[in-house]
Amino acid sequence: MLGQGINFTLEAKNLKYLLTFLLLWIKFYTMEKNLKVLGILVILYYSSCVYSIQIPRQYERLDLVIVSDYIGESFDFTEAKKYNLFPKVKDFVEARLYKIEPGCFELEVITKSAKYKAVYGEEQLPAILKDYIENYDEITKSDNSYKKKWNIMAFDDQKLPITYNEVEKIAKDHIFYSNPCLMGTTGAACGGLIGGCIAGAYSISPLYGPSREFNYDIVLIGTAIGGSIQVLRSLTTGKEEDFREAIKAINNSRRLEKVKS
Fold this sequence. Notes:
This protein is of the alpha+beta class. It is built from 9 helices and 10 strands.
């Protein structure tokens, strides 16, 4: 089922941090092997900060989903504008929803110049949309009850809902930030490596006179501080961070993909 397959990918904005630690690690190559192992753990930490969702690339359409009798087989331009759907699609013409496998749907969006598709793993999507369309006037007055009823946490670029159930399924199966052991280990690795870099710089720097012995106490202090900070972070905001990253992953997986002619 969609959403069950998760892999960790390196986010571009983390490259600067990764490269910084790599350069420091290379510079102080005289460190002991255990510190180099810590460096590897830091690399794993920074390459594990963002979720990405594996979506099916090959599938068969099973049925056309009639979301509501109010709109018929598809959302046309007038309906999309009325219900505030697909606001970022340029030259929108119409959109249809197809069932492709249990709990999964394909959204087909047609514009004046191209056709696009996206895959959704929210099994309640048709029911949520039906409720939204048929009770639109009431929902626009106060959408809090609507969001609470369906446990809606966010909306994607097409203004379609992202629910708690979908987010929890991804975050729960692949927790990172809310895992104190994993966060503590990576925090200790990061702190230990920073401490090692500081100790190494101090031991070889000509600013402080002749070379001195490598001070392992600094490494241990850095390890303790780094591990403690990350464990505390995990216990206080870990679940929230996991959910936030899961929402980003879901939104990214729903981005419209142009269909080749």
